[in-house]
Amino acid sequence: MSHPFSLSNVKNIIAISSCKGGVGKSTIASALALELASRGLKTGLLDADIYGPSLPSFFQLHEAKVQANEFKLLVPVEHQGLKLMSFGFLLGDAPAVMRGPIVTRYIQQLLFQTDWGRLDFLVLDMPPGTGDVQLTITQSVKLTGAVIVTTHHNLSLVDTARGILMFEKVQVPILGVVENMAYFTCPDTGKKYYIFGEQKAGALSKRFGVKTLVEIPILEAMSGDMAAFKPNEYIRKAADGLLQAVDNMQSFQTELKDAGFRDGRVVLVFSDGRELSADAFDLRANCQCAVCVSETTGQRLTDVQKIPPDVNPAEILPLGNYAVGITWSDGHSSGIYPYHLFK
What sign does the CA torsion over 285, 286, 292, 293 have? Predict the structure, then answer.
């Protein structure tokens, strides 16, 4: 049974997520937590990846021993004013061989049976993907919001769209996106080289309406060793954007009042009285999801002539304060439509 006070004094719980491995999510989560702590904010960092806990290696804490207090709660390991907890502290170097229900139990133990104390922020380094562990966390605690870490690689952009929809369907707002390893700066010339194509820079903001907190280049300092890591300008910018997004959470939740369909148009009504609309057929025909547009060539895959002329939204899902997700009457459901498409 979870202790009733373990999370009661935590103001904000932020999920740092990626839907594809290898994009630097754990590095970003650790660096952001360190930056928040360096600003005097009481911060904790939970490594929620049971199968591949990386936090002990990141912080060179392989020999860390976790103790229990008088309430039988786990006492976090502290580093530079940051409270750390990871299944790796309990597991050591042994492999985590276990099935889903046991994983769920361990996740809940780390969340609820850790003595976090008073925290301004608890940063959750989520495991990659959109499976059972992610759903367990989103259903167990009230998350303030999520930050998605991705690269400009085609597969990462596709998976990011899935992650945005997953979080929004469980009513977790997207606070922003960190585009990691976005480019390389030549030390001799200072010229930027976009490894995955310059045209993809800012693509997530344009296609999905979510805010890009920062584009981080390939940096040696972001190699994953957090023991002596000093937050750089990119992490500071990401933290600034995160804090601003948290401050704006109230308007995030109340701005869109209603969404519906009228006279062939999708209509959005906002709490301040504004009303925006867009032609339903045009929205469906110009969907930018991976089913409708090739992530490699940018070529449109949808045969517009096969879309019913009377296509209409079967369901409209508000996505934070930036977009709506629409399930159409023809069965298409993977599109995200930013507010800037509506007039």
Answer: positive
State the Cα–Cα distance between residues 343 and 339, nearest whole angstrom.
8
Q: Which domain holds residue 314?
A: 255-341
pLDDT value at residue 227: 67
pLDDT at residue 129 greater than cutoff 90 = no
CB 300 within 8 A of CB 293: yes
Is 24 in the same domain as 144?
yes
- Whether residues 231 and 275 fall in one domain: no
Assign 144 to helix, strand or coil.
coil
pLDDT for res 2: 41
275 in helix, strand or coil? Answer: strand
Same domain for 267 and 245: no
Q: What is the mean pLDDT of the chain?
A: 82
Which residues have CB under 8 Å from 260's CB, separation 6+? 266, 267, 269, 316
Is the same domain home to 184 and 296?
Answer: no
Identify the CATH number of the domain in which residue 97 sits: 3.40.50.300
Q: Strands (DSSP E) along the chain, which ranges?
A: 10-17, 43-47, 77-79, 82-86, 119-125, 145-150, 174-179, 184-185, 192-193, 212-215, 256-262, 265-270, 275-279, 313-319, 323-328, 335-338
Kindly tell me if the per-residue pLDDT of 293 is higher than 90: no
Give the residue carrying structure tokens 């290898």.
Answer: 22
